[in-house]
Write a structure and sequence with these properties.
single chain; alpha+beta; 8-stranded antiparallel beta barrel; two-stranded antiparallel sheet
Length: 319
């Protein structure tokens, strides 16, 4: 596939939408020093080319009473035809929100959302049954907390935007709020008027509910989904195994990671590894340089680092 090249204005536009997918056209236009009509034209072109895949909502799932976990699989004797058949079966399972083929330490990563630990065990059985006889290795990770960052590498921009999720606290949302979250998970850029029409209420009520959900930190932000392959962006999952360390060393390590413009996600997990880093870059050498630098700077706390390159996303849903 031939990569699509972006000019600097398109990159800045994508970055602004990744910081806030609901940013008004007038405000984006002011940032870019163009007219709102020119901004709308560029957005439509990026959508038509499939560069912008969707507009996403950043939600603290724990406050909705949801567990997020993932299964990482290494296959044995799996042909492409067999794999395609099994991916279709996975896609039908509603609790599965993300399916990605990878190269590296794993061949596939599957992310699920459930309401109980019992449901996690049920999902695990369903997944393993689908791949019976074809699993060489399997690992499991339960999300404890995560921090998400806009794609700073698009413009080499430094900012203080971060969305933090922690697995604590619940929020008793009503049916209307659940409907709002469901619609926003399909398209977080939908206008208040369109959203009100879909859920049979008024734009004023929608605006109030959005403020309430943000204040309660249920909604943390809005961002975009990009087609990494079309843009030639290398997308990696990095699995960090840490030695026992003190808080000061751990915080220095985390700060070093979050200050790297290519890091888009830092997750603390309950698993064989301790941290997961999501790393995106136009340059395939950047990940090796980043990992080499980490090992040089933090040899006393890093036991092992493994990574997998995301080669295709088969399913991506929210809530």
């Amino acid at each position: 596939m031939k990569n699509i090249n972006l000019d600097e204005r398109d990159k800045k536009l994508l970055y602004l939408l990744d910081c806030n997918a609901r940013e008004p056209l007038t405000r984006i236009a002011k940032y870019l020093h163009v007219s709102p009509e020119a901004v709308l034209y560029r957005i439509k072109k990026l959508e038509e080319k499939g560069i912008i895949k969707n507009y996403q909502i950043v939600v603290d799932l724990s406050k909705l009473g949801l567990f997020q976990c993932k299964f990482c699989l290494k296959f044995l004797q799996m042909t492409s035809d067999k794999l395609t058949e099994r991916i279709k079966l996975l896609e039908k399972l509603s609790e599965i929100k993300w399916i990605a083929s990878t190269q590296g330490v794993y061949d596939m990563i599957i992310s699920i959302e459930t309401q109980s630990l019992k449901d996690i065990e049920k999902s695990k059985k369903n997944i393993l049954d689908i791949f019976t006889g074809h699993i060489l290795e399997k690992d499991f990770a339960l999300l404890l907390s995560s921090e998400i960052y806009p794609r700073r590498y698009l413009t080499n921009t430094k900012n203080n935007i971060e969305w933090r999720m922690e697995t604590e606290g619940n929020f008793d949302s009503n049916d209307l709020e659940k409907e709002i979250l469901k619609e926003l998970s399909k398209n977080s850029r939908i206008s208040a008027v369109e959203l009100a029409d879909k859920i049979k209420t008024t734009a004023r009520v929608v605006a109030y509910m959005l403020k309430k959900l943000s204040k309660k930190k249920i909604i943390l932000g809005y961002k975009i989904g990009l087609d990494h392959l079309k843009l030639g962006i290398n997308f990696y999952k990095i699995f960090v195994h840490l030695a026992q360390t003190n808080k000061e060393s751990f915080d220095k390590f985390i700060n070093s990671c979050k200050n790297n413009k290519n890091i888009t996600h830092i997750l603390q997990v309950l698993s064989n590894w301790d941290l997961e880093l999501e790393f995106e870059s136009f340059n395939s050498n950047d990940v090796e340089d980043f990992l080499s630098d980490l090992k040089d700077r933090f040899p006393e706390i890093i036991r092992k680092i493994e990574f997998a390159k995301i080669t295709k996303e088969h399913k991506l849903e929210y809530i």
